[in-house]
Amino acid sequence: MKWHLQPPSEAGAPSRTILFFTGWGMDPAATRHLDTGTCQVWTAWDYSSLAPLPTPPGTGECFLVAWSLGVWAATQMEWSAWPLKAALALNGTPHPRHQEWGIPPAIFDGTAQHWGEPRARQRFLARMTGSQDAAAAFPWGTATPEEQRRELLSIARQCQEAPTPSSLPFTRALVGSQDRIFPPQAQRNAWEWAGVPMAEVPLPHDCLRRFHSWEEVLRLA
User: What is the pTM of this model?
Assistant: First the structure.
């Protein structure tokens, strides 16, 4: 797992710190369009193996935002040192490879199996973003298809080996009713079982492209 720090866009010391767990196969480019304002944003990416959280800041409010398979990665962290004001899960669950609470295993494994095929990747991006035009504009990042495939296989293995913690950090979940990657009903099932409050919005899996700033995202937390 890698970390990238994006500083505030406004002058002065940051008033808030966001820990953002991005999706599988992504890097910080996926949210570079979001203005940071007075926030500093730590982005976690590449879940081939997991790593500890950064050192908490001495001042300011702290938030967790996790998207897609990053929701699972965030559940594997030790949060006791971080005084989180709120924690938001976006279009994901703590059970990414699961028949009832995540992506059905046959689909999850089939994605990894066929990821080397350009057409398979194009279909995935179109489902993720909601259209072919949006897929063409998506900032996928620098990882090669083979690196992305290895990461997905590693996530599948880690999900089987690491049990879900009894205590989850999330205080709210956002479910995209147009999500064609993480089935919306599976998200509802998982968060209802976990007792985490939900809100539903008419957005595709790639919901973050619909926002312009981290301030907008935090209003949902």
Answer: 0.96
